[in-house]
Amino acid sequence: MGIFGNRKILSASDAEIIMLAMILSVAADGTIEEKETKTILGLAAQFPAFNGKDLGSLFSKGCSTISKNGFEGAIKSIASSSAEVKAKAFIAAVECAYSSGDVGSEEAALLEKMAADLSLKAGLAEKCIEVFEAKYC
Fold first, then answer.
1. Which of 3, 26, 39, 71 is the most exposed place for a label (fewest CB within 10 A)?
2. Average pLDDT estimate for 54-76
3. Regarding the domain delimited by 12-136, which CATH topology (the fold level of the hierarchy) does it fall under?
4. Cβ-proximal residues to 5 (8 Å cutoff; 6+ apart), any chain
5. How far apart are CA 136 and CA 1, in angstroms?
């Protein structure tokens, strides 16, 4: 089959998890700026996981989850997902962090915590960061 496999359609709850991770990555500094919101929604519009989904509603739900459960609780929600969804969520979070501008110490710390707590496949976090640093920096 080569390096490109068949794409699987993700469920609505999977899309919520990925959106939650994207929001977490830019909210780590305590605020979500309008530019960051636009970045998240713009990137999400390109993800097949979000086809046919109401991005505004997913964004609002993600923000509510973070408000209710804090960063730690939100990461636990992501960690309870399948390995595939955790990987997609982490990759999306890293891209959001890098594409929205400078990755500050708060964002970097949150992404490191996510990588550890999600028990990602060996090397995935490092590869992901390497790719997005090359793309955005």
1. 3
2. 95
3. TerB-like (1.10.3680)
4. none
5. 30
Maximum Cα interatomic distance, the chain, rounded to a whole number of Å? 44
Q: 95: closest CA among 111, 80, 84, 81?
A: 111
pLDDT confidence tier of residue 7, bands split at 50, 70 and 90: low
The angle subtended at Cα 18 by Cα 17 and Cα 19, nearest 5°, is 90
Alpha carbon distances (Å) from 9 to 21, 47, 49, 65: 18, 11, 7, 24
25, 90 contact by CB (below 8 A) = no
Q: In the Cβ-directed half-sphere of 33, how many Cα atoms lie within 13 Å?
A: 9
Separation between Cα atoms, residue 73 and residue 121, nearest integer Å: 22
pTM for this prediction: 0.90
Domain assignments of the chain as residue spans, ordered by start: 12-136
Task: Give the H or E element holding residue 26.
Answer: helix 12-27
For residues 54-81, one letter each, b for 16 or more C-beta atoms within 10 angstroms of the residue's C-beta and e for the rest, the string is: ebeebbeebbebbeeeeeeebbebbeeb
